């Protein structure tokens, strides 16, 4: 495996595949916080919060595919700068973006909650889906977002994301994720490990602050 790291300075998504690269960093370094860029030192910009990385990497979805991946930097899950809820969102977004899932925490001392995030087989399966599509944002209204990723079996992985400071109900429609509105589809919650039933045209869920609901939607 050839990993190329020049922090996205020379747009490696345009040339790294032809150079034999399997993954390439798309951004500057991540730091363990929800959002916000900070100077490393005066005049030396900048480290990125998790959502800053997400917003840069999302734009490059068309360059990812089997054997050649956008790398938005390692996971910060478990390093102490975010809440457990925020770490779950972090891991979910990396998985939907088909990012390399490189644990950046001390595996010897992680809590059971962090272990459960890093070993969620249903979420990891979305990251590792053989079709190799990078998921992307398909709807945004202020702090509320819907993300979708096509899977090999024709189903969709969907993240309903709330970046804001208060809870909101968010509705994902089938048209937003590439299905006809009349379709009936089975919905499964990948963090609750629970089948939620069949729905036609849309699915709504309450989403807590800085949280996600991560689903598969299968016709």
Helix content: 10-25%
Q: How many β-strands, per DSSP?
A: 11
What is the terminal separation in angstroms? 36 Å
Overall geometry comes to globular
* Gyration radius over CA: 17 Å
Spatial order of strands in the largest sheet: 4-5-6-11-8-9
* Rounded mean pLDDT score: 97
Largest sheet: 6 strands, antiparallel
CATH superfamily of the largest domain: Aldolase class I
How many domains?
2
Structure report:
There is one protein chain. The chain is α+β, with helices and mostly antiparallel strands. 16% of the residues lie in helices and 28% in strands. The protein folds into 2 domains: 3-127, Alpha-Beta Barrel (TIM Barrel); 136-218, Sandwich (Immunoglobulin-like), CATH 2.60.40.1180. The chain is globular, with a radius of gyration of 17 Å.
What keyword list fits this structure?
six-stranded antiparallel beta sheet; Immunoglobulin-like; TIM Barrel
Question: Summed up, what is this model?
Answer:
The chain contains four helices and eleven strands, in the order E-E-H-E-H-H-H-E-E-E-E-E-E-E-E.
Topology:
Elements: E1 3-4, E2 23-25, H1 50-58, E3 69-71, H2 84-96, H3 112-118, H4 121-127, E4 136-141, E5 144-150, E6 156-162, E7 168-173, E8 184-189, E9 194-200, E10 202-207, E11 211-218
Parallel strand pairs: 1-2, 2-3
Antiparallel strand pairs: 4-5, 5-6, 6-11, 7-10, 8-9, 8-11
Helix pairs in contact: 2-3, 2-4
